[in-house]
Amino acid sequence: MVERTPILNFLTHVILFLGFVFCVAPFVIVVIAASHNLKDVNDVPMSLLPGSDFWINIKTAWTTADLGPKLFNSFIMAAGVAAGKVIISALTAFSIVYFRYPGRMLIFWLVFITLMLPLEVRIVPTYAVVANVLSPYQTILDLTGLSWLIEKISGVQVSLSLGLLNSYTGLILPLIATATGTFLYRQFFLTVPDELTEAARMDGAGAVRFFIDILLPLSRNNMAALGTIMFLWAWNQYLWPLLITTDQSHATAVTELKQLIPNVGGIPEWNIAMAGTLIVMLPPLVVVVVMQRWFVRGLIATEK
Amino acid sequence: MASITIRDVYKSYAKMQVVHGVNLDITSGEFVVILGPSGCGKSTLLRMIAGLEDISGGTIAIDGAIVNKLEPRERGCAMVFQNYALYPHMSVAQNIGYSLKVAGVPTAERTQRIQAVARILELEQLLDRKPMALSGGQRQRVAMGRAMIREPKVFLFDEPLSNLDAKLRVQMRSEIRKLHRRLSATSVFVTHDQVEAMTLADRLVVMNGGRVEQVGTPSEIYSRPASRFVATFVGAPAMNMLEGEVTLDGLSLLGGSRRLAVSRASLPVGSKVAVGIRPEAVRLVAPGTTGALNASVDLVEELGAGRVVYVDLDGAAFSVMTSEAVHPAPGSAVGLQFSEADLHFFSSETGSRLDVFKASVPVPAL
Amino acid sequence: MEKRVTFSRWSIGILFAVPQLILIFTFFYWPAGQAVYWSLTLQQPWGGGNIWVGLDNFRSILSNADYWKSITASLTFAAISTGLAMLIALVLATLTDRQLAGSRLYRVVLIWPYGIAAPALAMAFRFILAPEAGFMAVVNQVWPGFWDPGLDGTDAMASIIVAFSWKYVGYNFIFFLAALQAIPRSLIEAAAMDGSGVIRRFWDIQFPLITPTIFFLLVINITESFQDSFGIVDIMTSGGPANATNLMVYKIYSDGFKGLDYSGAAAQSIILMLLIIVLTIFQFRFIERRVHYR
């Protein structure tokens, strides 16, 4: 717009630059702190010139918190959640958009309600379910008298038990059990022209064929956006992995950060802590930078 | 090639009935055009033949076999859609060959048939392109190719030309016609454009309000419209309609201000009729000429090859199409002359054609 | 909105929904129901089933001063961090929307913090705001004892607010910017032709048009401040000092898993669920009224 507002423009630049500093400074400080030795990092004020111990600190943090396997676990969890979400949400959305069976609206609402309650608020009973994922079914059998019946008839006592604590499945499945992606797909499916579906039917494609050959390829953008968002979201999960990975073998990188909080006694090893923090925050940061377009798109779309 | 037999077919949605008992026989190899205004049920009828809509009542048979319960793919129909409905993520070749892929035709045969179809439609250079990179006419041809490759018994066209610009539309029209001559497959073509309908059809089906108004060749429909609706819907500018009443010695028109001496037929005196005359059947003559109706000119529309003269006939709007180089000034008086053979009579109540007036007594006399 | 064209084989349709249904039954509805059941019963310490106690768990929770302190802390945290994060984001988004030189850079960079895990950024801020090292230590050198989140509840609360706001500025920024850019340029230009200046235009045109986004973000931020705060609290303060930052989710976690008081934790979960449901319903009422430009 042709408008002369030099003072306002100047202020705009100043404020935006301050905002920029506000956003970037913590990253910079983490990197610089991670490069100091123990003495320098505890200097007041800490020098903003990078030190020389960067790789040593990274290495120490890596071994102290055993980050190799933990990053691997994080990756498996995040990729699993992202893939699971991308697939299962697409299936569900296809079902509720492209069919007219009785009870469809019930399913729609059952899925919709899961949007309201995040995992964090129902964490305790979810934990109990994961400890024995078949317990809901056992209880149902018990309450309906079916287990009694089965025992009478076959003499076998029904005792369903499958613990998912300390397993990838246990990490991943509860994080998939929400509706976020379903509605993203639903919105998109509703914009796919009806004529494409009709053309596919005329070409002899049934529902499954249409879904695989036409609908999924058309949904690529949505899948990328949803996958990016879900990968980041899962990678950044903290409370859930913290609870169900009582055994170190399945702990994730984010939960391992706690190991790096400096002890109360002695000189705090902030340089190591910051090196570890850097390692843990780097993968999602790379994803955000590389997949920025999908990330922004997914963010805005999933919240609708 | 196949015949289609439609018997008492109707279609109703939750609250509305949109097709009311249609009967139609389409013979093998025929090119039938269903013409009607939007919302007349023509697309619904087509989609019922295709299997895309359930048939609420009646039967549709292809080659004698009732197809009501068959899936679209089992009916042997192919369809060309209004918006082409090309799969945007597939190349032209993949789009054309998709139905064969679904049917499990081996790749080698598929490629060969895609090539053959592409040759006919001159799409060979474009086989690797995506629909996005094609022009409107090319997309249209791909949509045709997709229908052709299955060698269907029946081609169904759902307003396939309405998204093209005027020039391309004329071109595609003749291509479709040529293609039909070559493949001579039974074709059903739905449109609201009468020029398209007239030029393409072996036989024309005019629909209105979910009913078939008339079935016939284009020239039959033009020269002997079966109802007032068909008379005014087919032909441009639309046929002039004058309201009249049967009197002892003929017809009184326009509330009695004009009289038409026609041989009175068996209709009782006082029956209301509508008299239709096509604008192109009227001659402009000097006002006061014997046997002519006097009118005053409202407006002249120049069309280049001819012109449409809109006149005022005692408050009723009336149009005349003439190719003569006359340019009457607005407000001037003219005479309108026509022969009785060009008059059409319709019942004012039912709208259906009345042939009871056909007579050879000289008219008009005022 | 509904599809006109659908497939007729119901069985296939239902089959497609089955995986999701099994998942949400097992990991959502069953646990949610379980939470209700537990909240109304008391578990025997060493097995032996649950005793029905009606609303006793809720009564004891609601008469517990610690719980009220947790609610107060949560609401304080929600109010201040949401206010901060949204205000800063709105200012930055509005200025970025002016599209002066460099605005592309801001659009890219300001989103980064949202990608970071709450515990990771909490760790960074724990260092940055540490009283003995880092940057607040400088202030402490000038005024000894001015800043110590380890001992002073207010300082601790301020720390987690800063950390949370830092993350959510980027998130809000994206939505504000998207909302601002959805406003047709012609509207702004028309206002300019009417003689309205930049600031006047903001208040008269842009701000009213993005109010739906403001409501939407308000709810999302508050809801997130209940959930996403867990990692920040756990790393930065562990709920201390003296429960000053013992936010609701953190208290559910510590009562349920450290105190093994399932019934109490379940009752707290139910209260939190109700709170979030009310907020969500509130949000849907406003989402209906989103501004459309066509």
TrEMBL record, chain A:
Q: Name one GO cellular component term.
A: plasma membrane
Q: Write down the membrane topology.
A: Multi-pass membrane protein
ABC transmembrane type-1 domain mapped to chain residues: 71-291
Task: Tell me the keywords, alphabetical order.
Answer: Cell inner membrane, Cell membrane, Membrane, Transmembrane, Transmembrane helix, Transport
Give the transmembrane ranges. Answer: 7-34, 75-99, 106-128, 168-189, 272-296
Q: Which SUPFAM superfamilies match?
A: MetI-like
Q: Which InterPro entries match?
A: MetI-like, MetI-like_sf
Q: Does S-adenosyl-L-methionine appear among the keywords?
A: no
- Biological processes, Gene Ontology terms: transmembrane transport
Pfam families, alphabetized: BPD_transp_1
Q: Give the UniProt subcellular location, in the record's own words.
A: Cell inner membrane; Cell membrane
Superkingdom of origin: Bacteria
Major site of localization recorded for this protein: membrane
| Keyword Transmembrane helix applies | yes
Protein family according to the UniProt entry: Belongs to the binding-protein-dependent transport system permease family.
State its role. Answer: Part of the ABC transporter complex UgpBAEC involved in sn-glycerol-3-phosphate (G3P) import. Probably responsible for the translocation of the substrate across the membrane.
Subunit record text: The complex is composed of two ATP-binding proteins (UgpC), two transmembrane proteins (UgpA and UgpE) and a solute-binding protein (UgpB).
This protein is called sn-glycerol-3-phosphate transport system permease protein UgpE
Q: Which organism is it from?
A: Mesorhizobium amorphae CCNWGS0123
Automatic annotation (TrEMBL), chain B:
A Pfam family hit: TOBE_2
What GO cellular component is one of the record's annotations? ATP-binding cassette (ABC) transporter complex, substrate-binding subunit-containing
* Membrane disposition: Peripheral membrane protein
Q: Where is the ABC transporter domain?
A: 4-234
Compartmental location: Cell inner membrane
Q: GO terms for molecular function, please?
A: ABC-type transporter activity; ATP binding; ATP hydrolysis activity
* Record has Nucleotide-binding as a keyword: yes
**What SUPFAM superfamilies is this protein classified in?**
MOP-like (SSF50331), P-loop containing nucleoside triphosphate hydrolases (SSF52540)
* Coiled coil regions, renumbered to chain: none
Biological process (GO) annotations?
Answer: carbohydrate transport
- Tell me which UniProt keywords the record has, alphabetically: ATP-binding, Nucleotide-binding, Transport
**UniProt family annotation:** Belongs to the ABC transporter superfamily.
Q: Which NCBIfam families match?
A: PRK11650.1
Query: What is the name of this protein?
Result: Glycerol-3-phosphate transporter ATP-binding subunit
Lineage of the species this protein comes from:
Bacteria, Pseudomonadati, Pseudomonadota, Alphaproteobacteria, Hyphomicrobiales
- List the gene name: ugpC
From TrEMBL, chain C:
Can you cite a GO biological process for this protein? transmembrane transport
Could you tell me the keywords of this UniProt record?
Answer: Cell inner membrane, Cell membrane, Membrane, Transmembrane, Transmembrane helix, Transport
Under the cellular component aspect of Gene Ontology, which terms does the record hold? plasma membrane
* The keyword Cell membrane appears for this protein: yes
Query: In which broad location class does this protein mainly occur, judging by the first location in its UniProt entry?
Result: membrane
CDD domains per record = TM_PBP2
Q: Where are the transmembrane segments?
A: 12-32, 71-93, 105-129, 156-180, 201-220, 265-287
What the record says about family reads: Belongs to the binding-protein-dependent transport system permease family.
Q: What does this protein do?
A: Part of the ABC transporter complex UgpBAEC involved in sn-glycerol-3-phosphate (G3P) import. Probably responsible for the translocation of the substrate across the membrane.
Q: What is this protein called?
A: sn-glycerol-3-phosphate transport system permease protein UgpA
Species this chain originates from: Mesorhizobium amorphae CCNWGS0123
